[in-house]
Specification:
mainly alpha; about 80% helix; rod-shaped
């Protein structure tokens, strides 16, 4: 709902000395809406915002660690299979079945991601 014009109006009314209740009445919104927006414009972060940001960051970090660990395991297995003479298409299919990203497999075997997808469809 907030845009630059409403933000400017809120700040102008506050500079004129109106209370949050008076500003809210003139703008047709609740007092808490005006109060919260004024505080956000002033740069205040609410505890709930900080907590949500921290939870999101932790979840993203955990997900990134899981993806990296999975990539490490699957790339190691793919390299081992290729070194031991397993046919390339079979090794690629096995790596993809284990959850390896086509880009990772493509980088290891030296082909494009599209070729890896073709190998996947063909097998």
């Amino acid at each position: 709902m907030w845009n630059d014009q409403l933000d400017a109006k809120l700040l102008r009314l506050r500079r004129e000395g109106l209370s949050f209740s008076e500003v809210a009445e003139r703008m047709g919104v609740s007092r808490n809406t005006v109060l919260g927006r004024a505080q956000r414009l002033a740069g205040k972060k609410f505890p709930s915002q900080t907590a949500r940001s921290e939870l999101r960051r932790r979840a993203n970090d955990a997900r990134a660690r899981q993806v990296a660990a999975k990539a490490k395991v699957t790339s190691r297995k793919l390299k081992k299979d290729l070194a031991s003479g397993v046919p390339r298409d079979v090794a690629v299919r096995t790596a993809l079945d284990l959850g390896a990203a086509p880009k990772l497999v493509a980088d290891i075997i030296g082909v494009s991601s599209q070729r890896v997808c073709q190998i996947m469809r063909e097998s």
